[in-house]
């Protein structure tokens, strides 16, 4: 009596789950990601302005340290920048005084436009505090600087015949923007077909 081992015991030979991960087209994982370290334009401009001001302090005679810098020094700095200005500011003697688009050249000086100075001061003021300066002693926030900027603004507005007044944002008039129709007003379903064709 031979004991025939049952050959039909199909031993469960490991259910070969065919892990044929046919990763045929998964090679697109090379997305660079948006981790570009380039700072915003505002940030880089701010850094540049801060460096310019630091350079100005360094070249100042007598030497001037940031901690001893006052609003008066900031004004000095702004006036110094005027020599690099590109904005014609007419004197009262100029026939084009108050003329926004002079038809001819004139010998009036070029200045920094008020808008540029205003933005510059805003950036330097922020940079000062980001670099450890205390808000209470921020020379860029000094009253003298504010007054100076206001003065420049008024003078340039007159001389250049332009207004810096921000356009007051009027509340947009209530537009009769056809909002009548209900949100989910279903179109009328077609009338039931009466009279079924025989
Ligand atoms: Zn002029």
UniProtKB/TrEMBL annotation:
Chain intervals for the UniProt region annotation (Disordered)? 1-47, 159-198
What InterPro entries does the record point to? ALOG, ALOG_dom
Molecular function terms, GO-annotated: DNA binding
The UniProt entry's GO biological process terms, in alphabetical order, are: mRNA transcription; response to light stimulus
From start to end residue, where is composition biased (Pro residues)? 189-198
**Where is composition skewed (Low complexity) in this entry?**
17-40
For this chain, the family text in UniProt reads: Belongs to the plant homeotic and developmental regulators ALOG protein family.
The name of this protein is Protein G1-like4
Q: Which organism is it from?
A: Phoenix dactylifera (Date palm)
Source gene? LOC103721946
């Amino acid at each position: 009596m031979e004991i025939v081992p049952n050959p039909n015991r199909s031993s469960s030979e490991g259910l070969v789950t065919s892990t044929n991960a046919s990763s045929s087209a998964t090679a697109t994982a090379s997305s660079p990601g948006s981790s570009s370290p380039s700072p915003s334009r505002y940030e880089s401009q701010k850094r540049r302005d801060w460096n310019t001001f630091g350079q100005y302090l360094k070249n100042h005679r007598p030497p001037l340290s940031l901690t001893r810098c006052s609003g008066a020094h900031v004004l000095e700095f702004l006036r110094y920048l005027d020599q690099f200005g590109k904005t014609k500011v007419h004197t009262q003697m100029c026939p084009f005084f108050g003329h926004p688009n002079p038809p001819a050249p004139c010998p009036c000086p070029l200045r920094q436009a008020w808008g540029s100075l205003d933005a510059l001061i805003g950036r330097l003021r922020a940079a000062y505090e980001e670099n450890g300066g205390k808000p209470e002693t921020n020379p860029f926030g000094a009253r003298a600087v504010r007054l100076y900027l206001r003065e420049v603004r008024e003078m340039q507005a007159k001389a250049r015949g332009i207004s810096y007044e921000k356009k007051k944002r009027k509340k947009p008039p209530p537009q009769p923007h056809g909002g009548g129709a209900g949100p989910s007003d279903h179109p009328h379903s077609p009338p039931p077909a009466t009279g079924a064709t025989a």
